[in-house]
Structures are given as C-alpha cells and as structure tokens.
Amino acid sequence: MITSAVIYVIPFQSSIQQWKGYLCLLLMADSLRRIFSVFSKGLNKVMIFSLDNILYTVVLFVANLIFLIKMGRGTAGYIEAAIIADICSIVFLTVSGRLYQYFALTRIDTVLMKRMVIFSLPLIVNAMSWWITNSSDKYIIEYMIGAEAVGMYSVATKLPMLITTFSSMFLQAWSLSSITAYENKEGETFYKNIWSVYSGGMILGTALLIALIKVLTDILVGKEFSDTWIYIPFLVLGAVFSGMGEFFSNFYIAAKKNVAVMLTTLGGAAANILLNIILIPYMGIQGAALSTALTCMGVWIYRMADTRKYVKFEIQVRRLIFSGIIIGVEMMAVMSGVMAWQVSGICILLLLLLWRKVILIIYTKGLAEGRKMLLRIRKRNVS
Q1: Are residues 272 and 324 in the same domain?
Q2: How far apart are CA 262 and CA 130, in angstroms?
Q3: How far apart are CA 367 and CA 373, in angstroms?
Q4: How many domains does the chain have?
Q5: Does residue 366 lie in a domain region?
Q6: Nearest alpha carbon to residue 92 among 135, 138, 40, 141
Q7: Residues 259 and 119 in one domain
Q8: Are both 259 and 331 inside the same structural domain?
Q9: Which of 2, 63, 97, 319 has the fewest CB atoms within 10 Å, i.e. is most exposed?
Q10: What percentage of the chain's residues is helix, strand, coil (to nearest 5)?
Q11: In this predicted structure, what is the pLDDT of residue 48?
Q12: Using CA atoms, how far apart are residues 217 and 230, in angstroms rounded to an integer?
C-alpha cells in the first residue's frame, strides 16, 4: 500500500501517467495474492496452494480472452484481467484455506513484526539485486548497440523461461522443506537425494532444450526472430546456474544468514554489469548472454562452497564437471552447426548414463506416488 501511494504521487511521462491508478490497484492485488499464497504454503496447505495456482492461471487466461479479444479493451483490459485474477485468487485462498481466522488487528505481535521486518530487509535488497542482474543487460545493450538489439535479446530470453519455470516450481516446495530439514537436523542423505534429483533434472532438461533450440525458437517466437536462437544457449546456462544458486540460497535462509544471500547477489549484480561493459563491445548481444551465464555460475559456485559451513552433504563435483563438459560439447556442435543432431543425441545419451541412478530414483518415487494415488481413488470409489 505504501509503494502504491508513492507511485501514485510520483510524476511519470504521459504514456504511463494515465495508467497510474490501474498500476496501483494491480500492485496491491498482486502483493496480497502473493502474501496469502505463501501464507497458505507456510500452513502446509499444499493442495490449496497448488489449486490456487491453477485457478489463477485459468481465470487470467479466460479474462484476457474476454477483455482483449471479445471486448477489445487493449492495455486496460490486460491490466483488468490481471486484477480480477488476483482478486479471485485472494478470495479462494481466504475461503478454502480459512485464512480469515488469522485476521485480527487486536492480536498484532509488534515484537514478531519487528523481527520479520529485520529478517526480510536483506531479502528485499537481494530481490532488487537479481532485478539489476536481469535488467542491466538490456540497458547496456541499448546504450552500446541500439534498441533493435534489445528487442532481439528480449526475444532470446523467452525460451530459457522453460528452465526457470521448472526451477521455480521445484524451489517453491524446496524453500519450506530446506528450512524444516535444517531445523530438524535431517541427515545428509536427504540433502544429497534432493540435490541429485534437482541438479539431474536441470542438466538433462538443459541438454534436451539445447538440442531442440532451433525448432523451439521457430515455434515459440516465429521465423522473423529465428536468428535469435544463437544467443539462447548461454541464456539457458544462465537460467540453470541461477536456479542452482537459488537452491543453495535456501540454506542461508534456514540458518538465518540473510545478509549472506544479499551480499552474494549484490556481488553477482556488480560482476554482471562489469562483464557486460567488457564483453558487449567485442561480442555484441552474445556478450550479454555470456556475462549472464558467467555471473550466475559464479554466484552458484560461491554459494555451494560457502553454505557447507551450515549444511554438509555429498555434491558429487566430478559428475557435475563431466556434465558441464558434455553440455559444452553439445553447445559447440549446435552453435557451429557441425553434426548438431548426431552430437546432441550422443551427449544426451551420455548424460542419461551419467545420471542413471537419479533417473531410477525419480522413476521409483513417481511409481510409488502413482500407486498411492490410485489406492486413494479406489478407496473413495468403494466408499
């Protein structure tokens, strides 16, 4: 609400000024939805949390169809659809999760609130630092190359979102599990298995995405932007390294070392800006993509090493190095166009062999969960 009030009184250029009221409403609705969603997850209402994400997506999609296509409301319709989806989500979470029983202005714990504000301040700076890391590329590209290059770079960042989406879904569940496991002093086997499944899934997904990069670029962004595929491999690596870095950042949060999370991200943001300034003049757009990959890799490696003072488990560095070499060979083949399909197929096969134990774990766990679900359905049908 404070941010909305500040936005409302700040003068903007005329193209944005007319949307200030809408933007304030959207900011408040989206913020409340996120708070209610995270609160539901914190109460271990995982089913409600999952259903809410589905509901939000469906309402947003339908509302966009109505406001944009049927009613032709343009930008206003787009923002209105987002606000309606947020409100529906808030109502659903409040009613189905019975969150209203926690609403009581007379029961505000000022001591706890103060602790929460102090705890969250470094995380706010951390989020802003990631924004700088992700956005500085475009500003420097525009300054050094031009607006057209920014458009091409923006298109190239769309495909790596597939990796980011998978990573975000996993990390949402892991953020709570890591804190619970840390407080309960879970054994290193638990951490090792979770890390193996996560890193294995990310690496195999990366290899598959790089193999199909040209095909997917034509499908998702159209042939007019098909040339942007050459920038995507490094951006995919950046998304993977970023996700892996976020995995280890949860150990800082579990140990209540939020300042360490902030400092590593600030360091990454500074390094990204410096690398952009150095590489873009020589490599153009590819320099921005490479700087993103190098920055995210640096943050991940530092966090992986630094968090071992809080949590220790077998990371299997040798397997990660071999995987990196295999993906590097695949990238060179795809980007050079020399036997791309053949080399990609061999690389994926090698990675499957290298991560076969992890794949077996995923298959076994998935099969077990599937059987449990079938048994529950059968019991319901019988009753």
Answers
A1: yes
A2: 10
A3: 10
A4: 2
A5: no
A6: 40
A7: yes
A8: yes
A9: 2
A10: 90, 0, 10
A11: 80
A12: 10
Instruction: Give yes or no for a contact between 218 and 226, defined as CB atoms under 8 angstroms apart.
Output: yes
Domain match, 171 and 93 both: no
**Residues 118 and 95 reside in one and the same domain:** no
Locate tokens 């991200």: which residue?
A: 265
What DSSP letter does each residue of 246-293 carry, written as one string?
A: HHHHHHHHHTT-HHHHHHHHHHHHHHHHHHHHHHHHHHTHHHHHHHHH
**Is residue 380 assigned to a domain?**
no
Q: What is the pLDDT of residues 27-76, one digit of tens each?
A: 888 888 888 887 887 777 777 877 887 888 888 888 888 887 777 777 77
Same domain, 169 and 201: yes
Model pLDDT for residues 241-291, shown as the tens digit of each residue: 999 998 998 888 888 887 888 888 888 888 999 999 999 998 898 999 999
| Final residue before a domain boundary, out of 47, 67, 99 | 99
What is the end-to-end Cα distance of the chain in Å, rounded?
49
Nearest to 301 by CA among 342, 345, 329, 271: 271
Domain for residue 277, yes or no? yes
Q: Which of 50, 66, 99 is the last residue of a domain?
A: 99
- C-alpha angle with apex 269: 267 to 273, nearest 5 degrees? 115
Neighbours of 249 (CB within 10 A): 26
> Long-range contacts for 73-77 (Cβ within 8 Å, ≥24 apart)?
75/19, 76/22
pTM (two decimals): 0.77
171 shares its domain with 310: yes
Q: Is the confidence at residue 353, as pLDDT, over 80?
A: yes
Among the residue ranges 183-187, 202-206, 334-338, 371-375, the one predicted with the least confidence is 371-375
Q: What are phi and psi of 22, to 5 degrees?
A: -60, -45
Supply the range of the domain harboring residue 330.
Answer: 113-361
Report how far residue 100's alpha carbon sits from residue 43's, in angstroms, rounded to the nearest whole number.
13
Whether 238 and 334 map to the same domain: the answer is yes
The answer to the question of residue 304 being in a domain is yes
CB atoms inside a 10 Å sphere around CB 157: 21
**Residue 111 has which token pair?**
């001591």
State the number of CA atoms in the 13 A half-sphere of 50 facing the CB. Answer: 7
